[in-house]
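Duplicate of #3305? Posting structure anyway:
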């Protein structure tokens, strides 16, 4: 009776996830289309369309850089330092938006794959509750995105207000009206923070769902420690091997996307941290500097946390495979298990610049 209830609950979770994720995926695809300006199927001017959003951010970088000579000659140290820090921050957003435009198709394929993973026959054969994990992951991902968006909007509102009250203009404009210049600055800051929220949200989605899928795969592997499961599910190791290869292939795509987006972030964040600490020392009561610093630390922590989760979870696959009842399997299945163990000896790690592993160690 309990098995029937569990199975029914799992089916309900899957149905709920399918519906919720479909709605979620439509929104993600719409955002990707806006970022890449790809609203039609035609491939004409695909490169030009991909460069539109990075071009908008690039224009703000040029505008801020053009303000530097004036800031160095005519303003106080707060505006000078803020101007330089803004250039680093905008350069980071520019690199992120460019990376998303370049890797838009890969991100789209990964998001589609997350929604199709629940159809995998392997989970139903082993009675693994994939639907429950996926549904919870979708909820946590939405909460993380909402929290990130709220934090960024609060930060940019405080920054814009602080710059206005301190009469600090960080963007060059051809207009003479001071009020209109501040209006343009407000507009640029909010536009840029929207770009940043979109990129960070995409990274959160990729991180959350990859950790979830690896957990589901681990749940399935642990089922092979059940004697009844091993005896009744002959030939299942081929499905395991196929699923494992697919996960590894998608992890390679994730590594490529992360490398493109995060390499410039880490490099520019180090400079921003140094500049922000300098500002905090000169203006200890400037709350905006403290908030900027907390945002940067939170970004670093999130990157390291996802890197650590993926590293540790892929590391656990080897142990889980070793603890199965491999000695009760057929020889062919044992050989497949051995090949899987060989592939999992070295854990998968997200890397910065293709060299430095991202984790908490």
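Output from current build:
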């Amino acid at each position: 009776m309990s098995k029937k209830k569990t199975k029914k609950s799992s089916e309900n979770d899957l149905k709920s996830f399918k519906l919720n994720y479909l709605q979620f995926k439509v929104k993600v695809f719409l955002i990707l289309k806006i970022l890449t300006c790809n609203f039609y199927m035609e491939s004409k001017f695909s490169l030009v369309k991909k460069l539109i959003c990075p071009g908008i951010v690039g224009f703000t970088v040029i505008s801020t850089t053009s303000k530097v000579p004036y800031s160095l000659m005519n303003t106080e140290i707060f505006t000078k330092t803020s101007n330089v820090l803004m250039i680093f921050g905008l350069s980071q957003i520019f690199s992120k938006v460019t990376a998303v435009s370049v890797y838009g198709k890969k991100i789209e394929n990964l998001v589609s794959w997350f929604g199709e993973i629940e159809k995998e026959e392997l989970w139903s054969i082993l009675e693994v509750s994939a639907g429950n994990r996926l549904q919870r992951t979708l909820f946590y991902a939405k909460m993380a995105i909402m929290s990130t968006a709220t934090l960024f909007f609060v930060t940019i509102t405080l920054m814009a207000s602080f710059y206005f009250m301190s009469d600090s203009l960080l963007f060059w404009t051809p207009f003479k009206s001071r009020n209109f210049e501040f209006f343009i600055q407000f507009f640029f800051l909010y536009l840029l923070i929207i770009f940043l929220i979109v990129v960070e949200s995409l990274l959160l989605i990729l991180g959350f769902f990859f950790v979830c899928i690896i957990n589901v795969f681990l749940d399935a592997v642990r089922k092979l420690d059940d004697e009844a499961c091993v005896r009744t599910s002959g030939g299942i190791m081929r499905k395991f091997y196929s699923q494992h290869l697919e996960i590894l292939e998608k992890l390679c795509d994730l590594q490529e996307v992360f490398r493109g987006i995060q390499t410039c972030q880490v490099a520019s964040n180090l400079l921003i941290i140094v500049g922000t600490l300098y500002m905090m020392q000169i203006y200890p009561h400037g709350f905006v500097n403290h908030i900027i610093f907390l945002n940067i630390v939170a970004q670093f922590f999130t990157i390291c946390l996802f890197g650590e989760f993926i590293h540790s979870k892929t590391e656990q696959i080897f142990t889980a495979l070793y603890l199965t009842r491999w000695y009760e399997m057929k020889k062919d299945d044992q050989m497949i298990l051995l090949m899987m163990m060989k592939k999992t000896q070295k854990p998968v790690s997200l890397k910065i610049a293709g060299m430095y592993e991202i984790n908490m160690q």
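Confirmed duplicate; merging threads. The chain has one domain: 2-357. The chain has a mean pLDDT of 82.
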